[in-house]
Amino acid sequence: MKPVYVAGAAVHPFGKQPGLNAAELGYRAVRQLVEQTGITPDAVDVGYGGSSYGGSLLTQRVLQRVGVSGPPVYTVENACASGASAVHLGWQAVASGAADCVIAFGAENLSSFGGGTLPLTTNDIEIEQGMVMPAAYAMRAQRYLHDFGATADDLTAVSVKNRRNGAQNPRAHFQREISPQDVADSRAIADPLRLLHCCPNSDGAAAVLLCSEDFARQLDTPRVRVRGSVVRSGTFHTQFRDMTWPDITARTAKAAYEMAGLAPADLDLVELHDAFSIAELLHAEALGIAERGKAHQAVRNGEFDRDGRVAVSPSGGLISRGHPVGATGATQICEAYWQLTGQAGPLQVPGASVALTHVTGGGIFGVDNGACAMHILTAD
Amino acid sequence: MPSPQSPPAGDRQVGADITHQHGTRTTLTITVCHACSARWFPPREVCSTCASDDVENIESEPQGVVYASTVVRVAPPGFQAPFVLAYIDISGVRVLAHSPSSDQALTPDTPVRLTVAPIARTAEGQLVSYAVEPLDGRDDTTTPTTGETR
What we know:
The complex is a heterodimer. By secondary structure, chain A is α/β, with parallel strands linked by helices. Chain A is 34% helix and 20% strand. The longest helix of chain A has 16 residues, at 22-37.
C-alpha cells in the first residue's frame, strides 16, 4: 500500500442552521478546503461524501459547485460513521494507487427533523416497540453502573469534561461549560440519562484532502500520515450480548492498531464517539485506553483531560461539538489534523503526535452498532 | 402451535403472528438453527449466522430475566411517555419489550413473565404487543438466568 496523507482540513461550524441544507453545508466546508489547500478542480481524482439524511447525489451537488464534475464521486451512507466511511474510501483510493488526490467530506442537516430524538427510519422489531437511541444507551448505562459499581455522577463527569473542552472550540455547537448541578437539573430523557448526558442534533459539515506523498509535496500545507483506516460492520445476532463491551469498537480498534503498528499506550489523543456520556466509558475500554470496568475512574482522575494521560475528545466530543450524523467522523479527522500539525490553538494537546478517531453508530436491532470507522493519524 | 388470538377491532397487535397465549401463559416464536445452534428472535427462514435453512421454530419459555431496563421519557412518534423498556433474556434470545405495569426501570436480573398488553394509544385504539411484567415473589416456578454472552 502507498502512504496516504491528510494535507488539508476544513469545518463549517456545527450548530442549529435550519436554513442550510446538507448540500449547502457541505459546499461551505469544501470551498474552504479548496481555498486553503490551493488545489485546482482538475487535480481531484475522486470524491466521497458521507451523509445519512442528505439525499440522493449529495456528493455531486457539493463538489460540482467547486468545479469538480466529471470524475467519479460517491455518496456514502453508514449512519453516524458515514463521514469517516467516506474518508476510509478516499484512503483506499490513494493507498491502492488509483488516486493521488481525493476530497472526502461529511455533511448533515438535522434541524429539518425538528426537536426530540433522532428519527430511526429503519423499521424493525425494536423500533416497533418504541426504541430510540437514548433508550439503547440508557440500558447500556444501567447495566454498566450495575456491573462495575459506577454511578450517574460518573456519567455526569464525562459531560462536564467534554463541555469544558468544547467551550474553547469555535466550531462547537455548545461553547459553554456546565456544572454537575446543571446536568442534574436537566430534563430526564431515558433513565439514568438526562438531557446533558446526550449530544445535540446539529447541522454542520467537514472536509479533508487525502493525497499521495508526491501530491502532498506540491502543496504548501502541513500534512499528517494516515497510519490506520478501518471500517467494520456490527456482528448480527439476537442471543445474549454483553452490552457493556462494544465488540464492534474492539474489533475495529484491533485491526487499526495492527495496521498502524501502534498500541493504545502510544495515543496522545482520541476523538471518541460520545453520542451519550456512557459511550465514552464503554468505548474507552474497548479502545484499550482504560481497563475493563474502570473508565469511569480514569475520567474522575483526570486521565482523559486535555493535559491528562490520553486526551479524550479535546475538541469537546459529540456532547459539546454536536452531532450532525454524517459530518461527525470527518470533523474528528479535521480536529486530529489540527492537533498533529500544532494548529489546534486553545484546544492543543501538548506534544500531540499520535491521534485516533472513532465513530460508531446505527440503531438497528441485533448489533452493537451498524458501522464503526476508525483512523489512526501521526504527525509527519 | 395454537393460533394467535386476535386483538379487539381498532387495536393493532405488534408481533401477533409470533405471540402465543395459553391461558395466562404467553410465549414467543423463536428460531433454532440445527446447523450451528444459533437462536433468533424474531424467527427467520434462514440462519443469519451460518445461512443454513435447516432451522426450526419453537416456542420460548413463558419467563425470562431482565438484562437491562430504562424509563423512556421522550417518546418517539406514536408512543406516550413515560414508558418502561427492558431487554429480557429468554430461552437463549434477547427480546426488547415494554413492562407496562412498571413505573421505574427494572433492576438487572429481575425475573419476568411474558404477557400481552397495550403499549401505546393510537387514533383507532390501542397498540398491543407482547410485553413483560415482573414476577411476584410467591411464584414457585424456576427462575431463568442470563447465560453465556456471545
